[in-house]
Amino acid sequence: MNRASVTALLLLSALLCGGCGGARLSAAAFHAKGDRICRQIQRKTESINGPTTRSFNKGLRAVDAGIIRLRKLRPPASDATAYAQFVDRLSRTFARVREDEPRLLALQREFRAALPKRLSIYRGPLRRSRRYQALLRRESKLMQPLLVDAREAARDARALGLNECANGLG
């Protein structure tokens, strides 16, 4: 092999491996890419209509795809450990959401059934309704662990400078 062939081969391998993720991102590139991924996740999940199993699963698929993309980012070395913890916490949070899906959807249906057809700001039927109060307690019990996880993930995202990720969680 001559020198030109070796040089061409090295350039080709460098070009092919350019997307391999071997190099760490600069802080600015890391923030921009991470926030872009989180914005895309938010946009996809906000566009989902109604609390149905189908829409719920569509939202979770969008989140899963986003988490996969977030895992592929190579943050600056100084943020690598904190970032790995953030993505792991995010994954655990949405694994818990997936696990609680049947209860969340059933609770949503019960809330809809418990709400009167017309609400008046002058009459307080919701505050006095025992059924509604019981649903609120069940919701609080179910959502509390999820909200704790989401707040911790948002705190981690803020510490990393991923503000869009933090805003979407907390």
Question: How would you describe this structure to a colleague?
Answer:
The structure is a single chain. With 170 residues, this protein is mostly helical. The protein has one domain (23-169). The chain is built from eight helices and no strands. Helix 2 packs parallel to helix 8 (163-169), helix 3 (53-72) runs antiparallel to helix 4 and helix 4 runs antiparallel to helix 7. The radius of gyration is 23 Å and the shape is elongated. The chain starts with a helix and ends with a helix. The relative contact order is 0.12.
Rg, alpha carbons: 23 Å
> Percent range for helical residues?
over 70%
H/E element string? HHHHHHHH
Number of helices: 8
Beta content: under 5%
Span between termini: 59 Å
The counted number of beta strands is 0
Summed over residues and divided by their number, the pLDDT gives a mean of 79
Oligomeric description of these chains: single chain
Q: Which stretches are low in confidence, meaning pLDDT under 50 for 5 or more residues running?
A: 2-20
Structural class by sheet pairing and helices: mainly alpha
> Largest sheet at a glance?
none
